[in-house]
Design a protein that fits this description.
heterodimer; B: two-stranded antiparallel ribbon; 72% helix; globular
């Protein structure tokens, strides 16, 4: 299409296929792809390294060949799993994450129910205190919390990692919002039937707020699975109990000469989170944790 | 207002686990940590089973005389000047992906992946990128931006390590701010854009004269969120450089952490005092955030 031809069509309010528009769209996609490379290149390279057959004697720094492995193998995954005993760390991650999810859901739901549904003396105060935790300067909490865990003989245990993290304003808010949306008539009916509050919570409220529970669960899985600093600190005296997120960096220390194994181990760690993210993309992209963090 | 006993008892029973945990692991450490900042509580005292001893402002005087602490404060200030500015790039990215064109959902999701990536993975992957023989040097020399033979390890170099660490912080955060900006962009009435277009405004003019002014609340919100996050940076530094080389990436929280847990002669008192200094600054920033931009926050949710 020539420029002259477009000019004659100019009166149309939206010059849909003008060269300028095409260039703009092309430019937009070029920029998008550049940003895409920035965002995902480290992952792609790690994947390439993990899939490379290291017996071929290639260096990971042999560009651009190392970005496109010719001899692909899954051997590195098996090797890192076996020689490093990765199964143990996977189990640790699963245990810590599982406890965190259950703990967060139970504690948030329990706390949110009265805050959403009952009037009682001190409610406003308690609610403000929970809001306050969002802005508290918690810079030295990790220090005192390790001392507390030591006194409780929980330092070096999974429970010690989980306990300080399960009562959070985010979970309580989320569940409170969900409970507020349940019609009051349902609760009245159940109460007339003589149901206890715990029954109402577990039989009516929780089933009706399943999407919120799922959202809270997914967010908790991702943050707990990825957490590094706090588990590293609590489990620094118990190297056998550390989760994958901590073990991966130990892996790097021990196998510094073997980036293929490190890459494979890293991908094993990332897979669950990536799958969860792909499944629940919308949830994350809604910026649900927007003003919270 | 009359309250029923039954409801009140039940409410407190349900709230008890959450309140106990918050008390034990959020409010108590805050109070006790503040107290520790005014005490001597070192490894030596700890080993002998002695508790903290009140020493008034001594820790704070020690801090002000410690060049390492002053360096760490300076680095934190650098961090919170650079990273929030970098974060503005997320607005540009949000504008890029805001148009409903084919493939946009894919780009948005891909840009968010670093946000859900663990810092340990980021450390593993970025060290290969920053390595002397790594991708960054390869790309730069391919583009003739780096003379051949001048390749260096970005994380081992005093003058570049800080930027390299900041870039990882930015990488892990830009998708998050992009989502906040996208939400803001969707609140801009389409008629305004259309009106500007009909008035003959170029895309560039529309961006600066329509989008940016209307996005001001979101821009301020994101800038403040990233400022507070920048002040609290610890993990990136810990896993990428450990504060080095030559303390060039040593941030305030790194100081708190290493005084409390690294080396043989740990010092909870001094670490708590340093934490208090950071906390007061963070609280100041948070207060500014809430007082000035409470409205913007409300619009977001």
């Amino acid at each position: 299409m020539s420029a002259a031809a477009t000019r004659t069509h100019r009166p149309a309010a939206t010059p849909r296929r003008s060269p300028r528009r095409l260039i703009a769209t092309g430019l937009r996609y070029t920029l998008l792809i550049l940003v895409l490379l920035f965002a995902v290149f480290p992952f792609l390279w790690t994947l390439a390294i993990a899939l490379t057959d290291k017996t071929a004697g290639t260096s990971i720094y042999n560009f651009p060949a190392s970005l496109f492995p010719t001899r692909v193998t899954l051997h590195n995954f098996a090797e890192v799993y076996r020689t490093f005993g990765l199964g143990r760390y996977i189990w640790n991650s699963v245990a810590i994450t599982g406890m965190s999810v259950v703990g967060t859901l139970v504690i948030s739901a329990l706390a949110a129910y009265p805050l959403a549904r009952f009037r009682f003396p001190g409610r406003t105060l308690i609610f403000s205190v929970i809001v306050l935790t969002l802005v508290l300067p918690t810079e030295t909490n990790f220090l005192v919390n390790t001392l507390t865990l030591q006194k409780l003989h929980l330092l070096g245990t999974h429970v010690g990692v989980v306990l300080p993290t399960v009562a959070g304003a985010f979970g309580i808010f989320l569940m409170r919002q969900a409970f507020l949306a349940v019609p009051a008539a349902l609760l009245e009916a159940a109460r007339l039937d003589g149901a206890s509050e715990l029954t109402i919570l577990t039989r009516i409220m929780l089933p009706l707020t399943r999407p919120s529970l799922a959202a809270l669960g997914i967010f908790t899985v991702v943050t707990t699975w990825n957490a590094y600093f706090w588990p590293m600190l609590v489990l620094s005296g118990a190297p056998d109990r550390v989760p994958l997120s901590v073990a991966v960096l130990k892996l790097k220390g021990q196998f510094n000469y073997d980036p293929f194994n490190i890459a494979a181990g890293s991908l094993i760690m990332m897979l669950p989170v990536l799958l969860l993210f792909l499944a629940a993309q919308r949830l994350f992209m809604r910026g649900l944790d927007g003003g919270v963090k | 207002m009359r309250f029923s006993w039954r409801d009140t008892l039940m409410s407190y029973a349900f709230l008890a686990p959450a309140l106990l945990l918050l008390l034990a692991f959020t409010f108590y450490p805050l109070a006790y940590g503040t107290y520790l900042g005014f005490t001597e509580y070192t490894g030596a005292r700890f080993a002998r089973g002695l508790g903290p001893q009140w020493v008034g402002l001594r820790n704070f005087r020690t801090l002000l005389a410690d060049p390492l602490f002053l360096t760490s404060l300076g680095n934190s200030v650098k961090y919170l000047l650079v990273v929030p500015a970098l974060q503005l790039a997320s607005l540009a990215v949000a504008v890029l992906v805001s148009r409903e064109l084919p493939g946009m959902a894919f780009f948005r999701a891909a840009y968010y992946v670093p946000v859900v990536t663990s810092i340990s993975l980021a450390a593993v992957m970025w060290e290969w990128v920053y390595n002397r023989e790594g991708t960054l040097n390869w790309v730069l020399s391919a583009l003739h931006l780096l003379p051949r033979g001048e390749a260096f390890g970005w994380l081992n170099n005093e003058s570049t390590a800080f930027l390299a660490v900041m870039l990882v912080t930015f990488w892990r955060g830009f998708g998050y701010y992009m989502v906040l900006y996208l939400a803001g962009l969707q609140n801009i009435p389409a008629e305004l854009e259309e009106a500007a277009r009909l008035d003959g405004a170029t895309p560039w003019q529309r961006f600066w004269q329509v989008t940016v002014p209307l996005m001001r609340p979101t821009i301020l919100l994101c800038t403040l969120l990233s400022t507070i996050a920048a002040l609290r940076v610890l993990e990136e530094v810990l896993v990428l450089t450990g504060g080095g080389p030559l303390n060039s990436t040593y941030t305030s929280l790194m100081y708190v952490y290493s005084k409390a847990f690294q080396g043989f002669n740990f010092d909870y008192g001094l670490a708590s005092a340093a934490g208090l200094v950071v906390a007061v600054v963070a609280l100041g920033l948070a207060l500014v955030n809430f007082r000035l931009f409470g409205d913007a926050r409300g619009e977001q949710s």
